[in-house]
Design a protein that fits this description.
This protein is of the alpha/beta class and 348 residues long. It folds into 3 domains: 3-45, no CATH class; 58-215 and 329-346, Rossmann fold; 218-327. It has 12 helices and 13 strands. It has helices at residues 3-11, 16-25, 27-45, 71-84, 98-107, 119-128, 192-205, 224-227, 258-268, 286-296, 305-311, 334-346; strands at residues 58-63, 89-93, 113-115, 133-137, 149-155, 182-187, 210-223, 228-229, 232-233, 249-253, 273-277, 300-304, 321-332. An 11-stranded mixed β-sheet has the order 3-2-4-1-5-6-7-13-12-10-11, with helices on both faces. Strands 8-9 form a two-stranded antiparallel sheet. The longest helix is centred in the N-terminal third of the chain and has 19 residues, at 27-45. It is globular.
Length: 348
């Protein structure tokens, strides 16, 4: 088990006494981190730390925690919408993993993905290459980049309260939502009522923000060989179906919060589901594929879209593999959030 996976399990209380003991030892570190976050935000609020200007509108999709809120599919939804409005959007990211970059190339072909550790420089590059709006991937804490709209995602499965890094998954406390223009609660396996509880807590901390709610659900099951082509990865409707293939499944993933993916597969599968987890953004190698094949046995394989773009080169060596594609369905708030986006673009 990698250190990153161990910490994530410890945050959920799944590492027993050793995890609880380690988390207690990290209390002083959390206090230092919390103090640093507070001082940094106050410096930006007071203008002591300056934000870089941009010649094009900037929309940020961010969150309060480390991964697992559905940021990537929601950003993809936004890019699709902006393109449909006649804009030339660009996705700006630090490029934590090649899987995210490839995912956007699958879901949003033709939309440039600009990778740079400095989001300010990346926005400038996007503008020079013809983009008329930049979408910041994971931009809420990157306050150096001026933005015209801050959309913050909260996962209903993660709640709204918890310790800050490194004792917990939160980067900032809930009151940081006071900087948000829109708050979108996402849910994968959480119920509508659970999501509403999260939304009420968020609105109490940020009554000025527009509130929306999204369901990230299994949209289709696509064979891996049809998800890719000789020209690169592409989602294809041919061979896809709305139901999982019959039989036992091995769920393979290397994402930040795999539990939601596993539960989604289990709730739909007709047979036994086993899970095989790799570290977040894991770069699959042939040795990994051999392990997957050995673990699968007679089972079929199902994986995420982020993992599919990395496993594409091995699809001939794998057993029959399906890609679980997620769809973005609004429970409520789509019109209000879309109107906020339109107003932000018109104001620039």
């Amino acid at each position: 088990m990698s250190l990153r996976v161990w910490f994530r399990r410890s945050w959920d209380g799944r590492t027993g006494a050793p995890g609880r003991f380690t988390m207690r030892l990290l209390v002083p570190v959390e206090i230092l981190y919390r103090t640093g976050v507070l001082l940094r935000n106050r410096c930006y609020d007071a203008g002591i730390l300056r934000k870089c200007a941009s010649s094009i509108p900037v929309i940020s999709i961010g969150n309060l925690v480390v991964g697992g809120t559905g940021k990537t599919p929601v950003a993809s939804w936004l890019l699709t919408g902006l393109s449909g409005m006649g804009h030339r959007p660009a996705l700006v990211t630090r490029g934590y993993g090649a899987d995210e970059i490839l995912f956007y190339q699958v879901r949003n072909p033709g939309v440039p993905v600009v990778v740079d550790t400095s989001k300010c420089k990346a926005v400038q590059r996007a503008a020079r290459h013809g983009a008329d709006v930049a979408v910041l991937d994971d931009g809420f804490q990157h306050r150096a980049a001026r933005r015209d709209l801050d959309i913050v995602l909260l996962a209903a499965e993660q709640g709204t309260e918890g310790a800050l890094l490194p004792r917990g998954r939160f980067r900032e406390p809930l009151r940081a939502l006071s900087r948000a223009d829109a708050i979108v609660v996402t849910r994968k396996v959480a119920t509508l009522n659970e999501a509403r509880v999260t939304g009420r807590a968020a609105s109490a901390s940020a009554p000025q923000a527009v509130l929306g709610q999204i369901h990230l659900d299994a949209d289709r099951w696509t064979p891996l060989e049809e998800y890719v082509s000789s020209d690169g990865p592409r989602p294809s409707p041919a061979g896809s179906c709305s139901r999982p293939p019959p039989g036992d499944l091995l769920a393979v993933s290397s994402i930040a919060e795999p539990d939601g993916f596993h539960e989604m597969v289990r709730s739909r599968a007709t047979g036994v589901v086993e899970c095989m987890v790799f570290p977040d953004h894991h770069a699959f190698r042939r040795t990994d594929v051999l392990r997957i094949v050995d673990r699968a046995g007679q089972s079929l394989i199902v994986t995420t879209e982020k993992d599919a773009v990395k496993l594409k080169m091995f699809f001939r060596e794998l057993p029959k593999t399906y890609v679980l594609c997620l769809g973005v369905t609004w429970d409520f708030g789509q019109e209000a959030v879309s109107e906020l986006i339109r107003q932000a673009l018109e104001a620039c």
